[in-house]
């Protein structure tokens, strides 16, 4: 089959999830026909393995492998096996991984919540080390507690610590430390701090029915933005409440162009190139 013309890249989707069991092949074929490539992101060992299997089968799909912070309590992070997955040529990122303070256990127990934060940070550092080892970007899940930016503050601190460690030991690994902050829900200050550390921020179709992130989208340089769907979650306004799919990335690109009041085709091309560069995706 000839290589397709890639017009969009969904930087974060989960087409390996059970929500697509009935029509996965049709969804992936429609992605191809619409020129939509996708990075299929793992959240645990099973979904990471399935992401790799899909990427092996379809030239317009790629994979990311990792353990979501919310799964920290239910699955051991097998670093040796994750290293094997990370070495696969179609694995283009490590993640999703990161910090999630939105659903911390033991809301009545400060000790339990703080202990979970420590465990999440330890798990994230393992992903960070793997990303540096394989010179691959991170896909980071970061969700603060309600009404706060606490998880972003801690994430920025962890990344700055890694940078300081490199500077103090005259290493160059920080130069390879990069990635995307998936489903960004922070403000302009957090986005700028993460951009300064070499990370892009990405937006989903939530921007088609909410205006909470318009200021960030307008302020952050277009070169520091990516687009994603997080499918099967968060369908665009025209399909609100339904299962989402990677084709919604077209709606996200269109909405970003409208928010920024810029030429839609120029925005599409820049966002496409941003994703290709970050994840080192070969052109046909």
UniProtKB/TrEMBL annotation:
A divalent metal cation 2 binds at residues 141, 182. One of its GO terms (molecular function) is metal ion binding. InterPro entries: DNase_TatD-rel_CS, Metal_Hydrolase, TatD-like. A divalent metal cation 1 binds at residues 12, 14, 96, 230. PROSITE patterns: TATD_3. Keywords: Hydrolase, Metal-binding. This is Hydrolase TatD.
């Amino acid at each position: 089959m000839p290589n397709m013309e890639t017009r969009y890249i969904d930087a974060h989707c989960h087409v390996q999830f059970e929500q697509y069991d009935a029509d996965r092949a049709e969804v992936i074929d429609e992605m191809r026909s619409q020129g939509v490539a996708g990075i299929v992101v793992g959240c645990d060992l099973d979904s990471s393995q399935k992401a790799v299997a899909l990427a092996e089968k379809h030239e317009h799909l790629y994979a990311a492998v990792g353990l979501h912070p919310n799964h920290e309590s239910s699955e051991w992070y097998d670093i040796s096996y994750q290293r094997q997955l990370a070495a696969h040529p179609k694995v283009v990122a490590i993640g999703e991984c990161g910090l999630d303070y939105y659903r911390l256990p033991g809301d009545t127990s400060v000790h339990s919540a703080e202990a979970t934060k420590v465990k999440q940070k330890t798990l994230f550092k393992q992903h960070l080390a793997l990303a540096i080892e394989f010179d691959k970007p991170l896909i980071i899940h970061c969700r603060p507690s309600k009404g706060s930016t606490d998880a972003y503050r801690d994430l920025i601190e962890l990344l700055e610590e890694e940078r300081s460690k490199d500077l103090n030991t005259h290493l160059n690994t920080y130069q390879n430390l990069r990635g995307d902050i998936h489903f960004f829900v922070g403000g302009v200050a957090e986005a700028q701090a993460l951009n300064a550390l070499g990370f892009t921020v990405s937006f989903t179709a939530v921007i088609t029915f909410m205006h909470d992130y318009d200021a960030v989208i307008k302020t952050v340089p277009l070169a520091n933005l990516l687009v994603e769907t997080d499918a099967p979650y968060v369908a665009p306004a025209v399909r609100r409440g339904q299962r989402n799919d990677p084709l919604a990335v077209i709606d996200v690109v269109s909405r970003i162009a409208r928010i920024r009041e810029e030429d839609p085709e120029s925005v599409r091309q820049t966002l496409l190139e941003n994703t290709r560069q970050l994840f080192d995706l070969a052109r046909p």
